[in-house]
Amino acid sequence: MHCPFCRHPDSRVIDSRTSDDGLSIRRRRQCPECGGRFSTMETASLNVIKRSGVIEPFSREKVMTGVRKACQGRPVTEGDLAVLAQTVEEAVRQTGAAQVDTNEIGLAILGPLRALDEVAYLRFASVYQAFDSLEDFESAIEQLRADHVAASTSTES
Questions:
Q1: Pairs from 90-97 (Cβ < 8 Å, separation ≥ 24)
Q2: DSSP states of the chain as a string?
Q3: Alpha-carbon span 42 to 61, nearest angstrom
Q4: What pTM does this model have?
Q5: pLDDT tens-digit readout, 27-84
Q6: Bridge pairing between strands 47-49 and 99-101
Q7: What is the pLDDT of residue 11?
Q8: Closest to 48 (Cα-Cα) out of 9, 102, 88
Q9: Which of 5, 55, 104, 121 is 20–30 Å from 114 (CA)?
């Protein structure tokens, strides 16, 4: 790591701390040449393979942007979207893969979004899963109803 002050090609790690989300490490460094101190952030790289074949770094902001459209007009806050994006990133990272398809990210979004807001879930699923007809919507709604019935009967027992 080059010193940002004198460009010396080496530095010494003084302190390391894990970030609050546990996905990165903040390192405090000192240059042995000029004595300047600076911080670095280290994260494990996670790349997304888009449908076009282009590979780009994973972005929580892109997850939030995609889900934000589905949540338009719904009682969902920016904080809710940030938590959802973090949940999605954690789920994708748990696969252990350094590269994931956009399809896997979409699948990882569906569960947390459904728990957050079912209307937003239907909106997102209709685009993501390319609903072609009313039957597709009816099938998704019937699945939601069946899950509600199953949840209510399991809490009554």
A1: 90/23, 92/46, 92/58, 93/23, 93/44, 93/46
A2: ---TTT--S--EEEEEEE-TTSSEEEEEEE-TTT--EEEEEEE---EEE-TTS-EEE--HHHHHHHHHHHTTTSS--HHHHHHHHHHHHHHHHTT--SEEEHHHHHHHHHHHHHHH-HHHHHHHHHHHTT--SHHHHHHHHHHHHHHHHHHHHHHH-
A3: 19
A4: 0.70
A5: 999 999 999 999 999 888 899 999 899 999 999 999 999 999 999 999 999 999 999 9
A6: parallel
A7: 95
A8: 102
A9: 55
**Two tokens at 126?**
């209709």
> How many residues can be counted in the chain?
157
Structure tokens at 47: 């790349």
Place of tokens 């010494």: 12
Q: Which amino acid is at 119?
A: V
Cα(44)–Cα(138) distance, integer angstroms = 41
Amino acid at residue number 65: T
